[in-house]
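Box S1 | Example of a co-folding query
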Amino acid sequence: MTGGGGRVLLGRGNAAVPRRAGNAVRRRAERGPGGRTGGRSINTVSLARQGPRVRSLAEERSEEPISGGDVSEFGEEQDVVLVGAGITGLCAALALRDVHGEDVKSFLVTETRDVVGGNVITKEKDGYIWEEGPNSFQPNDFVLKAALDAGCADELVFGDPTASRYVFWEGELRKVPSGPDAVTNNLLSLWGKIRAGLGAVGLLKEPAPDTEETVEQFIRRNLGDEVFYRLIEPFCSGVYAGDPTKLSMKAAFGKIWILEKNGGSLVGGALNLIKEKKDNPPPPRDPNLPTPPKGQTVGSFRKGLQTLPNAIGATLGKKVRLSWTLKDIDREGGKYKLTYTTPEGPVCVRAKSVVFTTPSYVAAQLLRREIPDAHSQLNSFFYPPVGSVVLSYPKTAIRDEMYGPDGRINAFGQLHPRTQGITTLGTIYSSSLFPGRCPDGEFLLSSYIGGTLNQGILDQTEEELAAQVDKDLRTMLLKPNAPKPKTVGVRVWQKAIPQFYLGHMEALDAANEAAVEAGYEGMFLSGNYNSGVALGKCVEGAYKVADDVAEYCRELASMSAPAAPASSEEESFFV
Ligand SMILES: Cc1cc2nc3c(=O)[nH]c(=O)nc-3n(C[C@H](O)[C@H](O)[C@H](O)COP(=O)(O)OP(=O)(O)OC[C@H]3O[C@@H](n4cnc5c(N)ncnc54)[C@H](O)[C@@H]3O)c2cc1C
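Box S1 (continued) | Returned holo structure for flavin-adenine dinucleotide
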């Protein structure tokens, strides 16, 4: 979505210490007597608040009964089955093929829809290219590697790192400070800047409490109220469409949270991190990886984000099975038995290992019978609705002050704090960010509306949502005489983005532990509720879960391999 502020880039989330799912081979060794892991009872984990019971298409399909005749067996047993061909499932499959071919000889990716990509949906029509889900990604090396391995790196496009980000505050679009302009910038008052600076170095802040803090508590304590209300609160809308009074700082913005924990203050932690990196430099970067421009950039592809899942899907070929809906998962003889509805009728696949990359509520539903404790934990994660509204205006409709001296609007977009009387969460200036998004002379704007604090969008029509966004844009960005926009696309996501509330990490741990308890070795829970919601985090999580799966397969193979023949020296003793 959108985002903004300081060192945090628009459209990025950074969940904490990503949780790896049930590598039960390793975890079993960690279990104490009686099979409990660390003796923690899952009943002590508080369940996050749930929203109204809205059902998504994937959820409905997963729950429909199996029909259509006898269940046929799918050929040979697979080493791994990945459930879901969103960006996580696809990138994990790519990593299994390209990085772990030695350990993983066979795998399938199964997807309930008839296209790959999950949330990543690009549309093209009448000279417009627009996104219905995510708009851009933070180009970390995992995403760049995926693009390279899928053969679409040449199509990458990057946003101008000097592009401005705006926050609407007290009737004005104000630039988000980005480095040198932090002192002169008018988004924060002088006192707000002093408070933030003193807090960041640890001179003016309360010590961290023993209990888990919300984003609001953490930021107000460390950086003061202004940074919270003017930067971080809108940023939470931009990344999570969420409520910062409920999101956990540790789970939702773990990379920032850990700085204070490790260094006593945010600056102390950052300095420690720099030193740590200097002492233990990362391995040299693969010279074949594309190099994005330096600074706060974001990435996409010339023809939109769906280029990446489409390219991965094409390179994986028949390993991806579309319109396959997982209906049931069973453990039989130490293996997994997965039952699908497919266009050819019900099919059963047997596998050594399974990776769930579906939304958590789908995994919860599928595990409810065999692992009720995992079901209740995974089902507790809340996904609010979000509407994406794409409108096009003539360029002349945009207020003159938005144009630079070169006659261009060099900006990423704008965010709207909930206190400022604007319903729309944020707007991305799609056609100023990436080339070729709309016909010449037009300006394409992608806005998001809804989220945790405005679930009422589910009762509104698409026309009403577009009208609301247009009304908001007139207050902030458009000239008074701007003509009516062209509505390019509207999509309402009934269950959009998982919220990392207080207790999120513990709930994930409890779900994994319940799976281990139930003997579900080699089952991995992955996807955005695990790795972090930003695409870059999902891809990083995909490569990590592929490492874990490969390790599991290697351990399995070593356990089932015949004993190695004794060495010739030893033989001479006995023969
Ligand atoms: C409106 C919106 C805007 C966003 N904006 C941004 C942004 O600008 N930048 C950014 O970095 N991130 C953004 N995100 C977040 C990001 O898009 C997601 O976190 C990410 O795409 C999730 O990928 P995933 O593969 O983990 O899950 P998903 O994309 O949800 O994939 C899961 C897949 O599992 C499939 N599935 C479900 N049930 C079954 C079943 N029973 N059998 C088989 N398959 C099944 C689903 O059909 C789906 O394809 C946005 C998200 C939304 C919704």
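DSSP finds 19 helices and 19 strands in the chain. The first strand starts at residue 72 and ends at 73.
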